[in-house]
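One chain given next:
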Amino acid sequence: MSTTEYRDAAGRRLVDYPRPSVAVDTAVLAPDPDRGLLVLLVRRDSATRTDAWALPGTFLHEGETLADAVLRSLDQKAGLRGQAPRQLHVFDDPRRDDRGWVLSVAHVVLLPTAAVTPVAEDRPDDVQLRPVAEAVGLPFDHDDIVGMAVARVRAAYAERPDPERLMPEAFTLRDLRRLHEAVAGHRLQPDVFRRQVKDQLVSTGEATRGSVGRPAELFRHSPSTG
């Protein structure tokens, strides 16, 4: 291995350049048929601040990947494990953090409400689920992260039925529509929704049983839209 220390064209070493801290912040979203699209917030370590609630996040540790830092923050801050958030955007305004120069690599993940509600119920003092429309006044630029994450998820759900596969193996069009309404934040016309999604689904050939009213046809996701 060469012992010659690297220098750039200006003769400067890597350590001669100022370096920001790197953080990860994750927008964990969950569609609820009754409350709409929810975002998971955690209480910050400094609870004396007026902006006590924020997205789960952490600073990147030496030798750690961004993905590992995200998983660590979700585990330690929110008690969530086994998730796979996707990178959303790098927020790099030098003034975004009043503690210093901090870049945030934001991530997003959409989960079933059933996967996040128990965490909020078990740790009500430290974790809460808040409708995205009410997730305002968060510290740093977390409002912007939530807004971008919501826009990304809504665009995906407007394009095709349940791209994140939150529905069970077999489902009715009504249940699928309620999921899409929760993501969209407004009511969808049943007939219009049916025409938009039916050709992208596969009928199971079966119908609901034991329910009140007329049995409803059951569908599953088409492998071609996975």
Remarks:
- The radius of gyration is 22 Å.
- The chain is about 25% helix and 25% strand.
